[in-house]
Automatic annotation (TrEMBL):
PROSITE patterns, alphabetized: GST_NTER
Domain GST N-terminal: start-end pairs: 10-102
Coiled-coil region(s): none
Gene3D superfamilies assigned: 1.20.1050.10, Glutaredoxin
Protein name listed in UniProt: GST N-terminal domain-containing protein
Pfam families per record: GST_C_7, GST_N_2
Alphabetical list of InterPro entries matching this protein: Glutathione-S-Trfase_C_sf, Glutathione_S-Trfase_N, GST_UstS-like_C, Thioredoxin-like_sf
Residues passing through the membrane, by range: none
Length: 243
């Protein structure tokens, strides 16, 4: 064991291996706080086994409301033996456990961050980003995860459709990008006029959440809304390092 904190992530064929927005949120937090940690890579089909081996509890359930839904990120703090899943829960845990580091959810803003995160995800998940990136994301998976996510996704999320058939082409794709730009226009209006970050000049978990979603397609969205999103990703780039 080289560091007290282990972040479990899902690998890909990208140079950095990391790709998941939800896991990037945690990586931003760890690096921003300057907390020594290391990454261990877990393929999709092996996530449930990891939880059971470590004795970790799932933070969510499947649509039936009963069956545990095992997802990453998962953080193991070897100094306290805590096992924490869910990006926001991990951020809160790190704020509480390491108070000497910069806070990412400052005291009195917990409800604000919860509401912001829920609003952002509800906008993104029902709009273009999923359609624009679903097939692309699957294509960068290692074979064992690619087969697993394809099989599970086509059977449940896509209701039997082939993954490739969900990827918009031509004029339809342009329309989807326009929808996404409209969504981020709404998010842009949540910021105070002239504010660099959600909380003004102070970086917080809310900014990490936005950047984690934008980073996947930042070259396409960087110029939208006065260049806000490109500037945000560039500002936080120093916290993206995979350790």
């Amino acid at each position: 064991m080289t560091t007290p904190l282990t972040l479990y992530d899902i690998p890909s064929t990208l140079p950095s291996k990391s790709w998941s927005p939800n896991i990037y949120k945690v990586r931003y937090v760890l690096n921003y706080k300057g907390l020594p940690h290391h990454t261990e890579w877990v393929e999709f089909p092996h996530i449930e086994g990891l939880y059971k081996r470590l004795g970790a509890e799932a933070s969510d359930t499947k649509p039936d409301g009963v069956t545990p839904h095992y997802t990453l990120p998962l953080l193991h703090d070897h100094s306290t033996d805590a096992l924490v899943s869910d990006s926001a829960a991990i951020a809160r845990y790190l704020d509480k456990t390491y108070p000497e580091t910069p806070s990412v959810i400052p005291k009195g803003t917990d409800a604000l961050h919860y509401a912001f995160n829920e609003a952002l995800l509800s906008h993104i998940q029902v709009t273009a980003l999923r359609r624009l990136t679903l097939a692309k994301t699957n294509s960068i998976m290692n074979p064992v995860s690619e087969e697993y996510t394809r099989r599970m996704g086509e059977a449940t999320l896509l209701e039997g459709q082939r993954l490739e058939d969900t990827d918009p082409k031509g004029e339809e794709r342009e329309k989807e990008w326009a929808k996404l730009e409209e969504v981020f226009g709404k998010v842009d209006r949540w910021y105070g006029k002239g504010d660099r970050y959600v909380m003004g000049d102070v970086v917080s978990y809310a900014d990490f959440t936005v950047s984690a979603w934008v980073i996947e397609e930042w070259k396409n969205v960087s110029r939208w809304h006065g260049g806000r999103w490109g500037a945000l990703v560039k500002d936080l780039e120093k916290y993206e390092t995979v350790l």
